[in-house]
Specification:
This protein is an alpha/beta fold and 248 residues long. It is elongated. It starts with 8 loop residues before the first strand and ends in a 12-residue tail after the last strand.
């Protein structure tokens, strides 16, 4: 592998949950200033949300698709091999270009593939500068589109990936404050049951494909147990008494 200049930069850019208008000005500037923009794709090859969003700001010829095992959750060795191969590919790009951006949906520091890539690049290219540009998260977009208030006063906010199991979500729902659940589509039935058992379903809302043509935003009470898209988001607002500033 060619030597990489110490001035090479890898920038993880959060491009939001799907609506291209939700990329920040700083994010757009970072994408346009980079020599190439890497977008993660599954081994099945279809265009992902990150790529679709980036194409609004960067021409196709400056976009490099790199395969990540984004749909691999059971075969740890295969997932690790895919991450290693992706890291080596990005290291090659850093050797050829001074600045490489990596576009990730949401925020690069919140359940993002960029975390794993940055760790790999830190080992392969220790002199490379790694930076991140924050992005709008799905919970922020869903809150804005649905009118759900995430936090008031002293309320805590708990973010749970339901890939960790519905029991983790139920524990959070039994606690105080607002609970946000990510990636719950395949366990939609168990999530609805947990909401009903904890008395949190009435004000809860879920959404998928936010900002895209297939967008769906519905009350959680309408969950019927049928599987939803993998990247579905749920907000169960804190229990509130309706008074202004009641939890200050």
């Amino acid at each position: 592998m060619p030597d990489v200049m110490s001035s090479s930069r890898l920038i993880g850019v959060g491009v939001g949950p799907g609506d291209p208008e939700l990329v920040t000005v700083k994010g757009v500037n970072a994408l346009r200033a980079a020599d190439v923009v890497v977008v993660p794709v599954m081994d099945t090859g279809e265009k992902g949300r990150a790529e679709a969003t980036v194409l609004h700001y960067v021409p196709q010829e400056r976009i490099v698709r790199v395969v990540f095992a984004l749909n691999e959750r059971s075969d740890h060795a295969r997932r690790e091999a895919a991450w290693d191969a992706a890291g080596e590919r990005v290291a090659e790009l850093l050797a050829a270009h001074g600045c490489v951006a990596f576009a990730t949906i949401g925020d690069p520091n919140v359940y993002s593939t960029f975390t794993y890539l940055a760790q790999t690049i830190g080992e392969l290219v220790p002199d490379a500068v790694v930076e991140t540009v924050p992005g709008i998260t799905a919970m922020q977009d869903l809150a804005a589109r649905s009118g759900a208030v995430l936090t008031e006063g002293t309320e805590p906010l708990t973010l749970v990936p339901v890939t960790a199991g519905s029991a983790v979500l139920k524990d959070a729902l039994n606690g105080p404050g607002t609970v946000v659940a990510y990636k719950f589509g395949r366990l939609a039935g168990e999530v609805a049951e947990a909401l009903r058992e904890t008395g949190r379903i009435e004000d809860a809302v879920w959404g998928s494909a936010l900002g895209m043509e297939a967008e769906s935003i519905r009350p959680a009470g309408e969950l019927d147990g049928a599987p939803l898209p993998y990247l579905s988001t749920l907000i169960a607002p804190a229990r509130r008494d309706g008074t202004r500033g009641g939890k200050l």
